[in-house]
Design a protein that fits this description.
alpha/beta; two-stranded parallel ribbon; 22% strand; globular
């Protein structure tokens, strides 16, 4: 955004957050989930669409990536037109799109004002379908993750990016979070929702200290889109200039409530719930 636009920005305007991610036609994940979450936290959501996914809870039938040119055009016009205060990435689909995003984020990193960047490395769908190619995985390792203010891998994603066997314990999570931060030089929130136990615990290694974020495990719910929503909530709160630890804690409370209040809206035989992105009983005004 140019200096004239910055100087004349309305101080009462909502914070602006950009999601670079895929489109989930069922509305539970991807940019649709991000926009709902941004709205809940009273931020204005922008989207740069990387792919169109034909899916419903429990089933991905087709993925069509956009061209690198149209992704680049989206990012260029949004950056020229808005004062972006936080960025999150989701599904990037292939190496060509990863290169465009890496170029965009590297250009931003060279400017005086750098928005916080949340990299959610979406590698596989909840239904087990691979969502990225090997060359794109290398670009995550070499260019994208080192640009992150915060990376938010789940256990499978962290194990893949670290070339580790499956992570099966809290102790292994601790070690993986430290290794991830050391390898990619970004703060790392390792999401432990798939680990067995009475609590769902995520671990942040900030390079100096370990921080645990726990909530009681909700055993009778099985929603999709939790990772997208969680990282979107963190990005929205960082756009409101929350300190990182406070942003994660508030986002953790939000996603836990969204899971608790999820319900099955699609085919009941899948047993997969749809998140409630506007949970009752929470007050976003108090959060922000």
């Amino acid at each position: 955004m140019n200096s004239e636009q910055t100087a004349t920005s309305d101080k009462s305007a909502p914070a602006i957050v950009l999601s670079i991610a895929g489109s989930d036609c069922s509305g539970g994940a991807g940019i649709q989930a991000d926009l709902k979450t941004f709205a809940y936290f009273q931020t204005y959501g922008l989207t740069a669409v990387t792919s169109v996914v034909a899916e419903a809870p429990g089933s991905v039938v087709s993925v069509q990536a956009v061209s690198p040119e149209i992704l680049e055009a989206q990012l260029s016009i949004l950056n020229d037109s808005f004062q972006i205060q936080a960025i999150k990435t989701g599904m990037l689909a292939n190496a060509g799109l990863c290169k465009i995003v890496a170029n965009f984020l590297e250009d931003l990193a060279s400017t005086e004002t750098v928005a916080p960047i949340i990299i959610d490395p979406v590698l596989i769908s909840s239904s087990g379908k691979a969502l990225i190619d090997p060359e794109a995985l290398n670009l995550y390792r070499q260019r994208l993750l080192p640009l992150a203010t915060l990376a938010t891998p789940n256990l499978d994603e962290a194990a893949t990016l670290l070339d580790l066997p499956p992570i099966t314990s809290h102790e292994e999570m601790d070690q993986a979070a430290r290794k991830f931060t050391g390898k990619y030089q970004c703060m790392t929130l390792l999401k432990g929702g798939h680990l067995e136990g009475s609590d769902a615990t995520d671990i942040l290694w900030d390079g100096t200290s370990i921080h645990d974020f726990s909530s009681a495990r909700i055993r009778n719910k099985n929603p999709h889109g939790t990772g997208c929503t969680y990282s979107a909530a963190i990005a929205a709160l960082l756009a409101h200039e929350y300190p990182l630890l406070e942003a994660i804690a508030a986002a953790k409370e939000y996603i836990s409530t969204a899971i608790e209040q999820s319900t099955i809206l699609s085919d009941p035989s899948t047993g997969i719930d749809t998140l409630n992105h506007f949970p009752v009983g929470q007050n976003p005004d108090a959060t922000i």
